[in-house]
Batch of 4 targets.
Target 1
Amino acid sequence: MSVLSRDEVAHLAHLARISLTDQELDLMATQLDAVVDAVAVVQSAVTADTPATSHPLPLTNGWREDVVQPGLSNEAALSSAPREEAGQFRVPQILGEEP
Amino acid sequence: MSPVAAPTNETGDLTRLSAARMSELLAAKEVSSRELVQAHLDRIDRVDGAVHAFLRTMPEQAFEAADAVDRARAKGEALGPLAGVPVAVKDVLATNGTVTTCGSKILENWTPVYDATVIEKLRAVGTPLIGKTNMDEFAMGSSTEHSAYGATHNPWDLDRIPGGSGGGSAAAVGAFEAPLALGSDTGGSIRQPASVTGTVGTKPTYGGVSRYGLVAMASSLDQVGPVARGVLDAALLHAAIGGHDPHDSTSLDEPVPDVVAAAKLGAARDLKGVRVGIVGQLRGEGFQQGVLDRYAEALGLLEDMGAEVSVVDCPSFEYALGAYYLIMPSEASSNLARFDAMRYGIRVAPESGPATVETVMGATREAGFGDEVKRRIILGTYALSAGYYDAYYGSAQKVRTLVQADFRAAFEKVDVLVSPTTPTTAFKLGEKLDDPLQMYLSDVATIPANLAGTPGISVPIGLADGLPVGLQVLAPARADEWCYRLGAAVEAALEDQWGGPLLNQAPALPEGTASAAKPVSGTEGGAR
């Protein structure tokens, strides 16, 4: 039985901002379905009472003194920018045109 | 006569020496760092066309660092043990001024403007960094075939995988192109390549080595560690890169365990009173017979050296692989959201329609990410999505609790746990490329340590059908020294039987194919 449909994979790819081709969608839906089926085994290992762990070691936040530290220069921060203008990242239009 | 013999008395080839031996010869001024760098760059020129361990070499920077160390030594300055010993760097670590691709097309032109902390530390002790090594894209894979820049080949058999994701670093040391290398291990990416290439690799305790400047895949699992040909060499590199880093909020504020002393202690081959636990869940079914044969012999050796060997049950390890392939993609889907085509990396416009941030992002990630990265991002997005979160990510986190509890219970009974590092020897290139699930099974024995944050090492224990087999030694968190002690004991006992390191039995590599690694002159970055 399929747990993950092609439509669902298409929706997830959209959420993840990856414009998959139709061919990729076909292949990935099959492969991911098999993977999800296999990893679903975790559900049978635990109960509602099992506590969850998000991190390997019980670390608390590492704070430092709130003093100014050296940082990147404007030029360095922009040095790998795809496009820049006036010392800033130049990006494509953020909001779509109204139809 | 000098107590340190000249290298010509040993093999005549500087690249065959251990890092520890190079260190002695450098200290005795029998060899210069410049000579070591030259010998390794020559070796890369000769054999890397066949192996493809390197994406870039850094001759100018390496010679500059070597000359600085040689001058400092001539002046009698106090230097650390690795000063002048060349190191290769997995391309997952940021190197100031040198393109860092992470094996991905999306970062093909990214020139970091800062060094990872481990790189800064190595530069400070004077290790010439000779190049950046190949890897599965964003460290996702077990074969290095998912690199956007072509696969790396196993030095033992060029038709086979060198493991992954750090196949480049393992193949580089295995092919004598570098004595030492840096790797990163999220689910086995240091230990599994070590196992299949007959080399040594350690995943330190989580937080034991800084992750600042490591391109993040799964932040609660990622750990930087050493790749070497011998246990003492790995310990020397571990000691050089370990320790607290205020730039990494998950870094342990504790001294680095004395791994070098532990490796030396282990080489004395006395394990009287050491309690060794065989992981009951990591043997038998799914493991290749040749791997199990070498494993059984290694267990016999441990007993011969005085260790008390018993079987320890870790029932939740059966579910560790499933939990890992939910937690890792979940964290990766979040971490890789930063590749949005806005601030660095490539930017690709959509083929049709308006170019908005959203469509450019979609087109860039489609063009810039490879199949495996896309698969994992989508899988992670699924595991974290409303309606499925509790069943998948939530259950996986609970399994993580159980895995940690199993380790805790085990380490009340034994000092270390052992298993084969990988279920099989190196498989053929292409064999598992179209079957992600089969590929994932390569990590079945290495994953539990990442989920628990505990340290592990892989050391070679012989050949099965002519291909290397590795033994994994797992220790409690913050007790990395146990990995080195046991690893060094097994190594010493076996090298005694073999009459030298296992890599001496590796076939000679074909020479002369042009290297695909791009030599970088000076730095590639700076102001445009």
Target 2
Amino acid sequence: MAKITIDGRQYDVDETDNVLKVALSKGFDLPYFCWHPELHSVGACRQCAVKQYKNGDDTQGQIAMACMTPASDGSLFSISDNEAAEMRAQVVEWLMINHPHDCAVCEEGGECHLQDMTLMTGHTRRRYIGPKRTHRNQNLGPFISHEMNRCIACYRCVRYYRDYADGNDLRALGSHMNVYFGRDTDGPFENEFSGNLVEVCPTGVFTDKTLGAHYIRKWDLQNAPSICTHCSLGCNTSPGSRRGELRRIQNRYHGEINHYFLCDRGRFGAGFTTRDDRPRQPLSRSANNVLEPVAKDDAIAAVRQAIASGRAIGIGSPRASIEDNYALRHLLGAEHFVNGLSAAESRASHAVRDLLADNANHIATLREVESCDAVFVIGEDVTQTAPRLALSLRQSAKTKHFELARAANIPKWHARAVHEAGQHHYNPIFEATPAATRLQDITAESTHGDAQTIAQLAFAVASRLDSQAPAPSNVDDELLKRAEIIAETLRNATKPLIVVGTGLGDSDVVTAAGNVMKALTTANDAAQIFPTLLEANSLGMSLFDAPSIDHALTQVESGDVDTLVVNQNDIFERAPTHRVDAVLKNLKNLVVLDHSLTETTARADHVLPAGSFAEADGTLINNEGRAQRFFQVFISEGPIQETWRWCADLARALGRPVRWNGMDDLITAIVDELPQFAGIQDAAPSQSFRKAGMRFPRGTHRQAARTALYAEIDVRERRPEVDADSALSFSMEGYHGSELPSELLAYAYAPGWESNQQAITRFQDEVGGHLKMGDPGVRIMTSKDNGGYTKLPQTNSDGGGWRVAPRYHIFDSESQSARAPAIAERVNGRQITVNRASADKLGVADGDSLSITIDGDALSLPVAIDDSLGDQVIGIPIGSQGVSGVHAASQVEA
Amino acid sequence: MLSVLRTIWMVLLHSFRKRDTVLYPEVKPYLPPRYRGRIVLTRDPDGAERCVACNLCSVACPVDCISVIKGEDETGRWYPDTFQINFSRCIYCGFCEEACPTYAIQLTPDFEMGEFDRQKMVYEKSDLTISGVGKRPGYNYYRVAGMAVGGKDKGEAVSESEPVDIKTLLP
């Protein structure tokens, strides 16, 4: 702790911070551009000039850049000093010299950091009349628009893209007046985190193209606190809507999870909610075998009839909230409910649940991942299945830089110096995956093999860490040598981390990780585990203790069940196509509640339009066992409603008691009936929560066009919609103060700070730290020790057959986001991958078409040679262009 | 008594004064050009619509009676896809005109907008757009702004230099 004086007042601050961070944390309005809490200081823009004084007698003082000045004990500063203020005004003026006078036609306008800073410094009139430099733009693909004229050359973009996200196809080209930020040629950014440039850029050089296509200013967006539904990490998002249509996804700061950054799948993947082919009306199959819209009451009556007359089973979904799934379970009874996961995924997800319960005190948060100093990734290609984790793992590797800098007495915020001190030294990351991944540029060593090999390696590592742990037998020496190195590194690390996932659909991999954790934690209490699952609520589904979808299919096959009620799930993703086909043919009735036209929806007899995350409230449980609430963004026109509302309507129609009316009752009912979910009631304030008698606004304080928005339909203004399910309001009215609970913070704005990444500063305990009112969500996993090590599974090393390695793709493998038009544009030509030896054996060359049979389904795709794959292993693309999911046995014939 | 007589005298005198009351609508009053009445959308000197759908009028409006939805043509030029003013709410304050960065929206001295049906007070873009430049001759926003649009490439706006050649080795 140090004491520094700013404008005559003394503050207790951390002496390892710089003055800019300290001043912002203490609430000062100090303009800046190139500094960013995650990218630290380079002192490039000269905007944060302050006056520094030698001592109390010094009246002259000297100008210093706040971001490059340590907050050392006893130092004296002035922000309001005239000379400093004048300097800041001049800096903005020269940064603005070439600015193109196009705020009116700029997507950044209204949430632009450059606008904020010109206003803050008081530069209101252009004096420069000379020629402005201009630039040509590049076409950067479907996600991001480029308008280089607006650039002020702060270098934030390249520092984020190259130094933080480790991308290499964005660079600063040219020098002096010619400096240009772009790619060598036109084309989309290769990095999976390029969307953050939209928020990192303080001007309008990089803007969201998906928002631009149906543009609306920030102040007109109706936002809600939401959770990304495109992977299991539960990143917090702030979707914005207008006129009942989702317009964009923006990052919502969470100090423990995503903090400032999202992945491109999360940011641009919400387009599935605005597709034209989406069911928006209840549909019923007509006499001539097509789905036709029917009235809501008729639809309910028809579904009631289907459920009442048949033997029905409900299929839940890892995409849907706990509430939706519980409501379906409640409608049909616990014994008639399956968790909607494929058999393999269900086993693996249950193994993860047990792993978390076993290590409840060692579960890392995504933020903690960044500070781990040795990582062992077991089986998961995280860039493709839990993308945001890959960005955090990259930071964990770079923690080494800060360590080396500290040894050289370099302050942690001195970005360039830290980078130079670190050079190419990274903390070790070991990967054991089926094939080379996008992380290979920073991994210390990668091991490639099928699920069995990976599990064996993990078992070997565990046995090397602790001799009590069972060692695998007949493992080749090469693998043992690797295990020795990994074990040695993990043992010597101060904060080792194990990452494991369900992507391989193999529970042995997860239990092997459990052994590694057990061996690690006996020696080092700081060891951390970070599991990933495949979908937003996969862990939540495993907590239901319900059987997998296999159970439902078997019941239909045996004739015990003749009606399926499917909640937001596509059965074709969960079991082999030929099997599902046969099952659907034998059904009397298929009822689907969904927001997308999936293959299952297309085959349904009755479709009830369910709300997507944007039209529903619900709770999701992320990969670390954190329950988080997402809130309805807008009320859509027509009968779209939450699955749990549909289920309540159906239960009433069936004459069964419904114990809930709104979210609060529903959550109470869940916790009463299923104690494993205790805690989810605390994930967000209840629907009756108020501050000073007020609700919490979804709209900004200056939402415009209220009396004209729907005037062409009816000139009389609509009555404001009332939210029956949460403490939020569907308007600009409500509590705007600084004590707004983090869970209900729909968007970031503070007076003078319009841009998302900068405004959030006012809601943090310190800049880049936790949210003042607490980071949202509660951990609900309770500790449960299952005792000793898990025994080795029986290996069936027949050696002869072909084995499957699922290959995921960030934009193709998650079926909701894959429906978003912008995302779909980024998926092209997925291939079956094999190594050269296997290709020779199969008699195919690179680019040839290969037909295989996987789980009894035929698949024909071009072949690509990937020598990182093991022998006899066939890489199968998971997603719309390959196989739709990891199924039961995954047997393959070539 | 005297005061009563004085009053009657005064009234009598007033009967011979010039009338202040104008016989509207037969006689139209003079309204200065800057009088704030019916709102119009003007065109730039080249005849293209001036409005770029920036939404500043909409947000400046104290009664929130303007709704604009942005459209973009294939050359990148922004224009209002729809422009809607609910005149039954408009208070003719002129804030929209002040906020407009392109001089597109202007208030005119016409106030004769009475309707029996309130729904008819909702004006669409086609009702608002006029064919001239209004009070601001000469100004063309896209000639000043740095964005490339149809008919104006990068570097062709007012006081702009040629686009930088990023491949050159010269400093």
Target 3
Amino acid sequence: MVDFLLNTVKPHFNFWVYVILMMIGLWSLIAKNNLIKKMMGLAIFQTAIILFYVSLGVKDGATIPVLESYGDYAEKAEKAEPAGPEVAPPDATPAPVVVNPADTYANPVPHVLMLTAIVVGVATLGVALALCEMIYKEFDTLEEDELLRKIKALHDDA
Amino acid sequence: MSPKIFASIAVVITGIVLLYGISDFPTFGDPRSPANSGVEGGAPSTSLYYINESYGVTKVPNLVTSVLADYRGYDTMFETVVVLAAGMAIFAILRSTTKDDETVAGPARKSSIDGDHNRIIVGMTCRLAVPVVQIFALYVVAHGHYSPGGGFQGGVMLGASFILIALAGNLDDALGRFSEKSYMALASLGIIIYAGFGVVPQVLGKNFLDFGVLQKILLTDGPEMARSHSMLGVEIGVALTVMSIMFAIFANLSSRGTLKGGL
């Protein structure tokens, strides 16, 4: 059990969380009878997708994708830097590992995609709520089986 | 078969398939994963280009802003249009101006921030909080180039400040400050600002949303600063639309389209 957790779950725990959230969302979308609960399931499902994307862009030891040194400041830092490491003491540890500057910032692309997805998700959730409100106004219920029964009764009358 | 059993079977099968696929994914936080640095032996990931080169081209340190508002300008513009369309859809579904709806929404409450003594603490706190929220929202919009933030986030915060007024007092208070006419006009104005930043380069003989050519109009040092300033303009347009539509959604949903009384 511990081996399974350490070797299988831990390196991919973000994906495990996303799959579990997605299963919760999918289950409530299919099994729940109430339209509001279905929409909650849809929102949980969407959260799972957002988590999946954002966690793909994570890099160990990286910071947010906002440059820390840029413009004049960066030029000054570059000029000042060579003075330091060149006069290393003789008993110095091996040369520091060269860090690719791209590895110090998280991947910005998933952030961009999810930023717009979140706002559009809120807007479409608003439309869904408006539809639910109209359904409730018309039929006095948001339970799916009752709705189907009432709609069927309407058709039988006509 | 009852729907719950069917749902459980479908969900468990989906979950098992997805979990089976997980073993092929890169480990969490791996900087060498295909998404972060490209496929081995293939082309490097686009994100490396954004991290290494985008500051030189756009002069915007926040990579998310530069990718969002410049490289993916079309995407962002039509996301904003989707937000406007959602506001229009809610208007079309819910908004009713007939008189007999008063029975559905209940009688309009007579409470306000000033009048109702049961709400004096909530009302006063809200009155103190709203300017702070709005100034911080403006900071988030204007400082989106240099720190996390931008039009969407600042717009949502501005919309939330009006929703706070509506929650603490009543909807009429909030609508008195931000009427239906003005939020619909501002929502459209935001799209017009965004599309305007796209059309002007076309008039100047370049592609839609090609901000670099705007240096002739914005009188900047070079195309890089023109892109930076255009992004700020675009973000302001996004913020206007998002603010208006967030408040429109709340106002219509909380009053069932009558825009009276509210919660």
Target 4
Amino acid sequence: MFLSVGTTVLIIVVALVLIVVFWYIGVMNRLRQLELKVHEAESGIDVALTKRFDMLTKMLETTKGYAKHESETLEKVVKWRQGIPQNATVKEKEEFMSQLNQVASGINVVVEQYPDLKANTVFLELQSAVANTEEHLQAARRLYNANVTQINTIIVTFPQSIVANAIHMEKKAYFEAEEKKRADVEFKF
Amino acid sequence: MPNQFDVFNTKKKTAEKQTVIGMVLIGIAVILFLGMQASGSTGFLIFAIIAGIPGLIFAAKGATDFKKLSRSFKQEVVIPMFQEAIPGVQYRPDYGLSEMEVYNTEMLKRADRFHSEDFISGQLESVQFISSDVRLEERHVEHTKNGTRTYYVTYFLGRVFKFSFNKEFDGYLQVLEGGSPMSRRDFKKVKLESIDFNKKFKTFATSELSAFYVLTPDIMESIMNLEKRNPGRIGLSFTGENLYITINNNKDTFELKMFRQIDQSVVDEFRQDLMVIKDVIVAMKLNNNLFKKAPQN
């Protein structure tokens, strides 16, 4: 049984259209999944930032007993006293992290001025916990950036970029960490 | 030490001679047996038996003496050398890791034949460790026209290490040079930001965030360097507060080799194999304050 030329052409055209449709759906789903992963990773950053904020707040409370003025000055560095607002952008969170880092390095300076603090067991435990939250924050930041790299690569690569444009998917912002400020918060045990 | 080596070398030569004589006699017996089959003469069979039985006795004696020599070498030379290199280390040549401990790594599949020896335990730079040589074999059955043949194939021959790893993290993490986890846990493949690391290793974790938490850029680099220094397939498994490392290098460590002169190079090689433990502790920064176990009161 032979098919007519017209039927053959029609089958080829339908097959090609189906391939394009399936490819389009595949890329779209991949982008949506990656976007979800980026959001998940961003909430990981929120959790780590909140933990770090809580720990540093407790540390400031402890230092108040030794250096009230310095602690109150440091408290004012942080923009969001109640933690991270829900609609905060990645850039704003970066800024928040930077403020927390300033507080952490400020506490380090206070510790140098008031050696008695080093003997306070509660303070030492908090210091260790803050170092731990810093590690968690770095992990969350790296995971977020790795996911952003994956999604951005698809968004800018042709022909997937056509799908990304069609569904109005834009490049995601990286969560940057300034190396200098990160170095400042390293604790000495 | 050189005099001690001479004593061992003399004993080794005797064992080697016995083995060689035994093998030659067995070889002659085989040739005579083949001659009998070809000619049909029973005379060949008698000579084959006359050569074969002493051959087997000599070969067996040579092997037994070599094993005894190897054991006394471990007792007299290796143990003091280990204790000098890592004070307080325990080395038990005939003892090994339990099957349960080996399968707790969740990287190795259950073997049909299990063997473990050269157990080492101790503490280095405040990090507790145990290690052992492990051989895992799989049973194969082949059906031929002459019947069924059963044989064992070694799929793991190398070392298994366990280190205390006190960095708190959720979930389970495995870094494998090949294969996939031997576990029913909900492992997901994780892609880290290092392209080189992803090319060399497959990372599986029950939580992506935990993988990024444990595998910092420094640790990834250390794992890459560790792999370069240790030929063979490497696997790392972070479970609870333990870090398991397997090195499948097809090598039976801490064993003397027949027909190889016993000298300082042998001792140095054993020492190098022992110091892989220190290499892991330092390279993986297990001696870092954050990883150390808190002193117990």
